[in-house]
Write a structure and sequence with these properties.
binds guanosine-5'-triphosphate, binds zinc ion, 5-stranded mixed beta barrel, binds magnesium ion, EC 3.6.1.-, 7 helices, G_CP_dom
Length: about 290
């Protein structure tokens, strides 16, 4: 019997990493019956015959990208090509916060900077309480800072296709030759170059980092809509000022969050993206209730 960490899974095979060695294992029907799908980051026991026998309890679990036992998420967005869609960034941050996973924002392709927009966004997210780092995989800028962030942790890289996740990891660890891809000419979108999530052991031997396929939208229907406000860290100091318990921070009077926005302490852009997401997941969850 061995014990290790799942670093990759394709169809029903899983690669399990244990002190530098990788064993390809097959999942038994057992997991399917219990409705558990093994994911990267899972701590597992496996038999000498190469079968996964047991998934050890998870400390947390990301739904998209699917990963377990994650210490940190690095959300990578390009400041240009493809142009950043900040409401999507907020969704990645909510997904991490809901699992109590620390998120760091990485604004990549800093070499393409032409105006102040990326600086303004940096200020918005820093004042919301996030660490924001600026990188260029192309000029190898900010790479040392990124490498330092990863040390000793299990980190998942996420973000839209074409943002530069795989390029950054290649820059962080010179042993890596992850495939990277051109953007499509017409719409400057990524082409989903990375197909499968993969957990990579750091060369220091202490920690892992996951390269994952990018996506261009993220549905958060698994997050109960009344909880959403808790996952915007800058809302927290204002929640005590809401007159109504269970305030949605949208239509009620005497709302602390709206007061925070009026006073300029909460960014209007972040508030608008909250409000849009709240209404979207509420609609979905209320219509599902009657199904
Ligand atoms: N100018 C510039 N281009 C970059 C930078 N980082 C990556 N690129 C380019 O952006 C394109 C996409 O990079 P990838 O690393 O494949 O992006 P990805 O996030 O892994 O994309 P998916 O695997 O599809 O999710 C490639 O053509 C890279 O060369 C950067 O810092 N500056
Ligand atoms: Mg990639
Ligand atoms: Zn409120």
């Amino acid at each position: 019997m061995g014990e290790g960490t799942i670093i990759a899974g394709v169809s029903s095979f899983y690669d399990v990493y244990q002190q530098g060695a990788v064993t390809r294992c097959k999942a038994r029907g057992l997991f399917r019956k219990e409705n558990i799908t093994p994911v990267i980051g899972d701590h597992v026991r496996f038999s000498d015959q190469g079968y996964l026998e047991e998934i050890l309890p998870r400390k947390n679990q990301l739904v998209r990208p699917a990963a377990a036992n994650v210490d940190q998420v690095v959300v990578v967005f390009a400041i240009k090509n493809p142009n950043p869609h900040y409401p999507l960034l907020d969704r990645f941050l909510v997904e991490s916060a809901q699992q109590s996973i620390q998120a760091v924002i990485c604004l990549n392709k800093w070499d393409l900077k032409e105006d102040d927009q990326a600086d303004e966004m940096t200020a918005v997210y820093e004042s919301a309480g996030y660490q924001v780092i600026h990188t260029s995989a192309y000029l190898k800028e900010g790479i040392a800072e990124l490498r330092q962030l990863l040390e000793g942790k299990v980190t998942v890289f996420t973000g839209p296709s074409g943002a530069g996740k795989s390029s950054l990891l290649n820059a962080v660890d010179s042993r890596l030759v992850l495939q990277t891809g051109q953007l499509s000419e017409k719409v400057q979108r990524g082409r989903n170059t990375t197909r499968h999530a993969k957990l990579i052991p750091l060369d220091s031997g202490n920690g892992f980092v996951a390269d994952t396929p990018g996506f261009t939208s993220l549905h958060l229907e698994h997050i109960p809509y009344p909880d959403l406000g808790q996952y915007y860290p800058e809302f927290l100091p204002w929640l005590g000022d809401c007159r109504f318990t269970g305030c949605s921070h949208i239509s009620e009077p005497d709302c602390g969050v709206k007061l925070g926005v009026r006073r300029g302490e909460i960014s209007a852009q972040r508030y608008d993206s909250y409000s849009e997401l709240y209404q979207e997941i509420r609609r979905e969850q209320e219509s599902n209730r009657w199904k």
